[in-house]
């Protein structure tokens, strides 16, 4: 019966994650937030359905590899060419500025320099999934603001691969010549591949593509095999398997078989990514959050304000108008899902301990969840400041959809209450008729039967004598 119990737990986890993901999508939020919330709800700090994470860790690691694979495949290098200077400069300054800023904080808390590098990398990265959802909600996805945002996100995704190499070799402060050569090799390989894919007018073909084309049973296996092949090769050269998966996705996304790979590997990737973000939710320790609430809140405020201000200043320096710079910086004002990947790599390399890892995970989750709300509120308040009308009139304009939704909900609630009152009245009448008890002395007007007096027949005649 132990196997049946395990299957029951897996079924409960799958259903809860699906429902939470659907709820987030319904409210125009990324599904990954729902998966994380499901993990919190079912984890040790919640209902306790999942206490041993060993069974899910392997699938979560596969989810990381496939996350890098599909991120690489989704990158449009040809459109990136038109904005690459702005995006690369902004990303480079973000990384350098974030590391320097966190270096000051680590000295304040007495943390080692390795923490500054790790936290600086995490601070520089934003969430592609959340940013795209926010841009869609704002209607800015295909505008100048959207193009700049997507360009910076692509540059950040390209920077993740060298970051993984650096973080994996931070243990003990051993940033020697070998590590620098490894970083230079990874960057050189990445740049060479990008140049080749963008300069080559004819799209490349994946190895063995003729063996899987037109074969639905082999196509998913072929797509995944290509991912794990380059991940294994990277591991053999003592590089991060996720880096190899990213290169595999970059090649597949700019090949003639992109559509084939995306269609057949997509469902498997969706399941494993759900497992990955679910495992992140399982890591959330609510007891740790409550015990360190002040530090978590302070770090979240620092992340949100610093990222927004830094990005706005960078874009303004590059010639963007303040309105566009602030809009882009608000969309990029959260920590990204790659913070989980970098944190896991640092934990496995003994760069950080489990307590610092929990802190990083909690701050990242809080940033992801609050980002759409913060972005929407900041955008509306910015609009409010530019309006000559009064506060009340402007708030009605800004929150017209929410106001209409509230009125609709109030009307439905009133109708429901009226129907409930009618049913309660009928129930009281039935009890009165069967028991003879007088439960309600007040009748609704217009509901007396014809020929009956409006007053109750059991009511005594009032005394008409003058009391005086």
Automatic annotation (TrEMBL):
Compositionally skewed regions (Basic and acidic residues) per UniProt: 450-468
Pfam name, any one: Na_H_Exchanger
Keywords on record: Membrane, Transmembrane, Transmembrane helix, Transport
UniProt KW Transport keyword: yes
Region annotation Disordered: where it falls in the sequence: 441-468
Matching Gene3D superfamilies: 1.20.1530.20
Its membrane topology: Multi-pass membrane protein
Cellular component annotations (GO), alphabetically ordered: membrane
Subcellular location: Membrane
GO molecular function ontology, one term from the record: antiporter activity
Stretches that traverse the bilayer: 6-25, 32-50, 56-75, 87-109, 115-136, 148-171, 177-197, 218-237, 268-290, 296-315, 327-350, 356-374
Family named by the database record: Belongs to the monovalent cation:proton antiporter 2 (CPA2) transporter (TC 2.A.37) family.
Protein's UniProt name: CPA2 family monovalent cation:H+ antiporter-2
Organism: Aestuariispira insulae
